[in-house]
């Protein structure tokens, strides 16, 4: 995220007056002096990974690597090395965890970065904005599901495009390591797919809103799942969740709002047929809206962007002929495509039938909408003020079977997804209230092959509320921002009608910030974060409260 894109976004969302105001205050730009010369190292109330207590080996693949010039000649990114699984801790492993440690000082924007193993994306993340004195942060990532890649050495790639000049002085220095934990009776070897395939990176624009790659699958394929890494980029798509309908933008020329509405859908296709949909979480990075909101607590998923998972097993019967098949991705056509750019990568996890060299199958029912149904209700009050409500929904079903060495196995996947956005703009865009809600229910049901009927249901809720107000009175300018972000997930697995696994997460973050210039100077921010989790690893609860960059409450239970 570069300086021009963030300033353009401030203007497009909040109007030309706010553009000048924001530029003067630096509210949408990195400003290391907002809480003095330092603030607490970034941290979160999220539950740390549960790590096995078995013998483990750690392999460092990058040590204190500086990232200064991502656009130089030559650029210093991506950084490449080789990850060699440790001989002293041979697989199969109970867990494989990647740890990152970063540090930066000075003045710098938040920057996105990607980590890949053997060309397969294993992390999409962003950096914090630093203080003058400097901060450190850590990211831990469970990469156990990528273990099929690690039968031998794999190329490691870390891609972080930074810019350092006379103004933006922060150099990111990052280390990366992988810890391989051996298995035991208490910590058995993790169950993973047999192969991991990938489409490689993709980019979707208005001119090219769809892309695909040809991949060949094992002829004894039995199950297939996909994960989609993706994020919106550019001055508008980073904030797509707050965009206005095209009709409002058209009828209010010169104000610079982003159009295309607040709903985004990325559709995964198999040989041109829609097989599933991703509705991206509204991730807000540490420079988003006002950097004071995120010091020291980053937004939900800002340091570990989601990898959205879809069950493609009903389509396995279409992929068993040994020929390449097209796996594609397209951004929704509602509101005539997105504004700027969506990037990412699709990984596919293939599980094979070890009892046969060939399986057969068929897709028997396919009721998956080509794209979600979207409705928009708009009231334009003129002068850059308006109200709109946007709703979207999906009710999809796909069913198929695979003939395996242990019998015919049928799978049905059902998705019920709903999205709603209510937005109110007043005072030429200087007064904004936004309420977004996303509710996702995904069910995968499998039966046959001598196993009891298994049903896995995942329910997710993703609320986002924003209140923004900017005023100018003579020489005085005043800006307040308040948000509530949430992520709620409940995953339930039953076998033969009996509950075999249940996991839940309830994560809420409420940051606020206030800036004032003129008769006095105010730079203040606060946040309240609550994280609850329950499941096989036990219960976890932590609450954190911060004021002006420092924790004032931290309770755990």
List keywords for this structure.
about 550 residues; mainly beta; 12-stranded antiparallel sheet; 4 helices; about 5% helix; globular; disordered N terminus; PNGaseA_N
Task: Give me a quick take on this structure.
The protein is mainly beta and 557 residues long. The protein is 6% helix and 54% strand. Strands 18, 19, 20, 21, 22, 23, 24, 25, 26, 27, 28 and 29 form a twelve-stranded antiparallel beta sheet that branches. A four-stranded antiparallel beta sheet has the order 2-9-4-7, with no helix packed on it. A four-stranded antiparallel beta sheet has the order 3-8-5-6, with no helix packed on it.
Could you characterize the architecture of this molecule?
Helix content is 6%, strand content 54%. Strand 25 (476-495) and strand 26 form a beta hairpin. The longest helix is centred in the N-terminal third of the chain and has 12 residues, at 3-14. The protein is mainly beta and 557 residues long. Strands 18, 19, 20, 21, 22, 23, 24, 25, 26, 27, 28 and 29 form a 12-stranded antiparallel β-sheet that branches. Strands 2-9-4-7 form a 4-stranded antiparallel β-sheet, with no helix packed on it. The chain has helices at 3-14, 16-25, 234-237, 246-251, and strands spanning 34-37, 56-67, 79-83, 95-104, 112-117, 120-126, 135-142, 154-160, 172-181, 195-205, 210-215, 221-233, 266-270, 273-278, 307-311, 325-331, 341-352, 360-367, 373-382, 385-404, 407-426, 431-448, 451-461, 464-473, 476-495, 498-517, 522-534, 540-547, 550-556. The protein is globular and about 80 Å long. Helix 1 (3-14) crosses helix 2. Residues 55-363 form the Peptide N-acetyl-beta-D-glucosaminyl asparaginase amidase A N-terminal domain.
